[in-house]
Design a protein that fits this description.
The chain is an alpha/beta fold. The protein has a single domain, classed as NAD(P)-binding Rossmann-like Domain (Rossmann fold, 3-Layer(aba) Sandwich). Strands 3-2-1-4-5-6-7 form a seven-stranded parallel sheet, with helices on both faces. Helix 1 crosses helix 8, helix 3 packs parallel to helix 4 and helix 4 packs parallel to helix 5. The termini are far apart. It comes from Meishania litoralis. Its EC number is 1.1.1.-. Keywords: Oxidoreductase.
């Protein structure tokens, strides 16, 4: 069998749940060697034990030094770095009046600043491999939702940062983003708490897509695999929507 990512070394953030976990598993299935990032030690350790050629490094992506450690670990353990898959994210729920400055800052630190931090330390090594960066953004970059000001702002910022890095580092490094719509992960259930009837809000999120269902983490993982693979070698600076047609409703 020809593995799409055979011997590619990948850092996957947000790897302990949801889309990040599905991406890690898909990359592993296709032959990648993984540095797994997340805050939940139990889930991260269990995932690393499940996937050979994988190492879990616990920490907070909002801390620059932790991102530097992820890159150093990849180089020390595997000798190179080919792919960075950025999936860590939080919601920071609350309208502009009610949201605390600290929650605003923390949301932007995790959802946006962490992309800058990890890219900063990874790019010198990615250039050596003609590697790529893939940012997991959101349709919230384009479509606003009540009580999500920090989330929407951070996702719009991540798309803008992606485009700037693609300009800055092409042709040596490809930089792209995915913009998922409503996907059945723990995050969407947390997001639904911003609405009066959370269960109904999640149900409506799926029903109001053109495909009449929520996305699955594996749907997003399949797109991630394509975008980091050689099959997407002429794609950079692109934010690809994967939302079951949600933006068209």
């Amino acid at each position: 069998m020809a593995y799409t990512l055979k011997d590619k070394v990948c850092i996957v953030t947000g790897a302990t749940s949801g889309m990040g976990k599905a991406i890690a598993k898909t990359f592993h299935h296709e032959g990648a060697k993984l540095i797994l990032s997340g805050r939940n030690i139990d889930r991260g350790t269990a995932l690393a034990n499940e996937l050979d050629n994988s190492l879990f490094v616990a920490g907070d992506v909002s801390e620059p030094s932790y991102n530097e450690r992820l890159v150093k670990t990849a180089i020390e353990v595997f000798g190179k770095l080919d792919i960075v898959s950025l999936n860590a994210g939080i919601l920071g729920l609350g309208n502009v009046v009610d949201l605390s400055p600290r929650d605003w800052q923390k949301t932007l630190e995790i959802n946006l600043s962490s992309i800058f931090y990890l890219s900063k330390y990874a790019i010198p090594y990615l250039k050596k491999q003609q590697g790529n960066i893939l940012i997991n953004a959101s349709i919230a970059a384009y479509k606003s939702f009540p009580n999500h000001p920090a989330y929407c702002a951070s996702k719009a910022g991540s798309v803008a940062l992606m485009r700037q890095m693609a300009v800055e580092y092409g042709p040596e490094i490809r930089v792209n983003a995915m913009c998922p719509g409503p996907v059945d992960t723990p995050l969407i259930w947390d997001s639904a708490k911003a609405f009066e009837n959370p269960e109904k809000a999640v149900e409506n999120a799926g029903e109001t897509t053109l495909m009449k269902r929520l996305g699955k983490p594996e749907d997003v993982a399949n797109l991630a695999l394509f975008l980091v693979s050689d099959k997407a070698s002429w794609i950079t600076g692109t934010a690809m929507t994967i939302d079951g047609g949600k933006l068209n409703t």
